[in-house]
Amino acid sequence: MGYEESVAAHYGSTNVEELLLAALARDGKDPEHFEPADLHGADQLHIGGPIATTRVAGRAGIAQGHRVLDIGSGMGGVARHLAADFGAIVHGVDLTPEFVTAARSLTERTGLSEAVTFSQGSALALPLADSTFDAAVMIHVGMNIRDKDKVLTEAARVLRPGGIMAVYDVMLVGGDAEDYPLPWADTADTSFVQPPLAYSDALSQAGFEVDVEAKTLNEGIEFLERAIASGGPAGVAVPALANLLAAFRAGILAPVEIYAHLPG
């Protein structure tokens, strides 16, 4: 089994959609017709949840009518957020078939299927045409991608001249020891955390010009503390969150945002 298949198996091991729909029913919502915000960010499994998505979208300049690619779209929470809150037209690509199925189902139930679509595929060979999108986001995905140069070269291919690339990942900022499991990997075999410089170099090699790099460590620590206290989001084991929190506190890992653009 290749590492991409192992990554897909890691994320496809639990039926998160059923857990989310059951939570909606407990909250008195109609699981067949609801607003994206009714999920309270449980469909956005990254540090900071919807608040972080809003920050990334704002810094990337995503606005009404922009065509946006969500690389590693998971259950589609980020894509629905960008469509509902920013008016973007979003296409998500994800490696895990179960996530793509759930993303399509949840999107239909929120009435956003005309603005938000999904396909199953590898970020290393995006099933998309050249020069199609105004912006691309990659949120907590790169930790599972060994070949960051390939994914960012693919992103550059599908972006129009002047297009924006927004990366928000957990990155290596000190030391090299990690305890597993972590939210994105049970073992080191499918964990490819790298320092911000590795991303910046890969972006530059792909033809991007890097504009901004921002570390949000304190916000990440506070978010994980709250998540652990509440039992963690659906489908994410508390021990994995605890290991990530320990790595944040030790200064080994940190959530980092990098924004870049293609020359126009």
What is the H level of CATH, i.e. the homologous superfamily? Vaccinia Virus protein VP39
- Which term fits the overall shape? globular
Number of domains: 1
| Spatial separation of the terminal alpha carbons | 41 Å
Number of strands: 7
pLDDT < 50 stretches: none
Give an account of the 3D structure.
This protein is α/β, with parallel strands linked by helices. The protein has one domain: 3-Layer(aba) Sandwich (Rossmann fold). It is built from nine helices and seven strands, in the order αααβαβαββαβαβααβ. Strands 3-2-1-4-5-7-6 form a seven-stranded mixed beta sheet. The model has no long low-confidence stretch (mean pLDDT 92).
List key phrases describing it:
7-stranded mixed sheet; single chain; Rossmann fold; alpha/beta; 264 residues; globular
Compact description:
This protein is α/β, with parallel strands linked by helices and 264 residues long.
Per-chain topology:
Elements: H1 3-11, H2 16-26, H3 49-60, E1 67-71, H4 77-86, E2 89-94, H5 97-109, E3 116-120, E4 133-139, H6 148-158, E5 159-172, H7 196-205, E6 209-215, H8 217-229, H9 238-249, E7 253-261
